[in-house]
Amino acid sequence: MADGSSFYITTPIFYVNDVPHIGHAYTEVAADVLARWHRQGGDETWMLTGTDEHGQKILRTATANGVTPKEWADKLVETSWKPLLETIDIANDDFIRTTDERHEANVQKFLQHLYDEGHIYTGEYEGFYCVGCEEYKQPSDLVAGTGEYEGQQVCAIHSKPVELLHEKNYFFRMSAFADRLLALYEERPDFVQPESARNEVVSFVKSGLSDLSISRSTFDWGIKVPWDESHVVYVWFDALLNYITAIGYGEDTDEFAKRWPAQHLVGKDILRFHAVIWPAMLLAAGLEVPRGVFGHGWLLVGGEKMSKSKLTGIAPEQITDTFGSDAFRYYFLRAISFGQDGSFSWEDLSARYQAELANGFGNLASRVVAMITRYREGVVPASVAPGEAEAAIAEVERRATDASWAAIGRIAPHEAIAAVWELVDALNGYVTEQEPWVLAKDPANAERLDTVLATAYHGVGTLAVLLSPVVPKAAAKLWSALGAPGKVQDVRVDRAHEWSLGAQVSALEPLFPRIETTA
RNA sequence: GGGGCGGUAGCUCAGCCGGUCAGAGCAGUGGACUCAUAAUCCAUCGGUCACGGGUUCAAGUCCCGUCCGCCCUACCA
Question: Mind telling me which Pfam families this protein's record contains (predicted)?
Answer without folding.
Answer: Anticodon_3, tRNA-synt_1g
